[in-house]
From TrEMBL:
Native source organism of the sequence: Lysobacter korlensis
Pfam families with a match to the protein in the record: Septum_form (PF13845)
Top-level taxon of origin: Bacteria
Descriptive protein name: Septum formation family protein
Residue ranges of every copy of the Septum formation-related domain listed in the record: 62-157
Length: 174
């Protein structure tokens, strides 16, 4: 999954604040760093209630997404879904169901997700992935999610230049 990371300068500044005696921010440095880290990955704000988030297992093809929700292990657990006519950044274009059995391992599940999501792209957008102005991302189940019965990979697309989307891209031919 694509991620933005906290710039090194910000991390060093926060670390420096924790080491300055009498600064008054020592107690808050960890909270500040956590906020910056969550914000940098596009995570839902701490004020979101569970009702505002659609669980990853409840996502349907065509859902338009503004932000991801994460757990303490940095695993995507849900999405903030909006009407596609509203500004959004990603759109769910396919859900790939993997066969039951043992977890195939991270490398294999990611390779399968890549192949299946790219194959489903043209059927949703109306043009091949290679010819499209959109980029793709996939979120495959982790080993723990697999053991809990989740065998679904979510295939999402977004504007290649990271411009907000307005309206669905289904059948757009772009």
């Amino acid at each position: 999954m694509r991620r933005r990371s906290v710039p090194a300068a910000v991390m060093l500044a926060v670390l420096g604040l924790t080491l300055l005696p009498g600064c008054g921010l020592v107690e808050n440095a960890e909270a500040i760093f956590e906020h910056l880290e969550r914000e940098s990955r596009g995570a839902l704000p701490d004020t979101q209630t569970p009702a505002d988030v659609t669980a990853r297992t409840d996502m349907a093809v065509g859902a338009c997404v503004t932000e991801y929700g994460y757990d303490d292990w940095d695993t995507v657990t849900g999405f903030q879904v909006v009407d596609c006519d509203a500004e959004h950044y990603e759109e769910l274009y396919a859900v790939v169901e993997h066969t039951a059995g043992e977890y195939p391992g991270d490398n294999r599940i990611w390779k399968t997700a890549e192949v299946e999501c790219i194959a489903a792209f043209e059927g949703y957008v109306g043009v091949s992935y290679e010819e499209s102005e959109y980029a793709a991302n996939w979120i495959a189940p982790t080993d723990l999610e697999w053991r809990d019965g989740d065998r679904s990979t979510l295939c999402l697309l977004w504007d290649y230049d990271y411009r907000p989307l307005v309206g669905s891209v289904r059948g757009s031919g772009r």
